[in-house]
Amino acid sequence: MPEKKFILLSYKFLNKTGFSNVELMYDKLSHNIFGSATIELGVLSYQFEILINRSDKVSVSTITDFRKRMNDYTNKGLLISTGDFSRDIKRESRRKKEIPIDLINGIDLVNRIKNLKLGVGINERNDPVVDRDWFNALINQE
Predict the structure, then answer these.
(1) Using 50, 70 and 90 to split pLDDT, how confident is the model at 79?
(2) Is the CA virtual torsion 117, 121, 26, 101 positive or negative?
(3) C-beta of residue 61 within 8 angstroms of C-beta of residue 34
(4) What is the DSSP string of 81-123?
(5) pTM of the entire predicted model
(6) Which residues pair with 120 in a beta bridge?
(7) What does the alpha-carbon distance between residue 75 and residue 95 come to, in Å, rounded to a whole number?
(8) In what order do the strands lie in the sheet containing 101-104?
(9) 44 half-sphere exposure, CB direction, 13 A CA radius
């Protein structure tokens, strides 16, 4: 999927998950999507910095570099990857005295997209089925 369309899918995913004020941009150098969003829980709101990594490889330096991008208003980070996370990355995401970073791996991402019905349905046997019309509309959307 082209970068612009993946950003649009990411935007729809984050909005449907409950985030507002979502701003995303594609970084050509790292091939990652960076952004920010707010989530409101009753009278409280939290500012998130977001990193969406499209590769299977996420290193500990990815998290440390991500933290450097955060500002004083950031309450939490969200790292979404199409791959999986090592034990070291999970540990680094929860390092004491640092802004915590929630992790969503590829399997969890697919399950969430399926549950949100973002281009994925479920057949009679409860197997996921790609809604090609939905993705074609996304790809053709400008």
Answers:
(1) very high
(2) positive
(3) no
(4) ESS---HHHHHHHT-TTS--EEEE-HHHHHHHHHHHTSSEEE-
(5) 0.88
(6) 130
(7) 14
(8) 19-27, 32-41, 44-53, 76-81, 101-104
(9) 3
CA dihedral 103, 101, 64, 90 (to 10 degrees): -50
Query: What is the C-alpha separation between 63 and 53, in angstroms, rounded?
Result: 11
Torsions phi, psi for 3 (to 5 deg) = -55, -45
Q: How confident is the model at residue 142 (pLDDT cuts 50, 70, 90)?
A: low
Domain residue ranges of the chain, discontinuous segments joined by +: 3-136
Q: 3-136 has which CATH code?
A: 3.40.1350.10
Q: Which token pair is 108?
A: 């969890």
d(CA 121, CA 100): 33
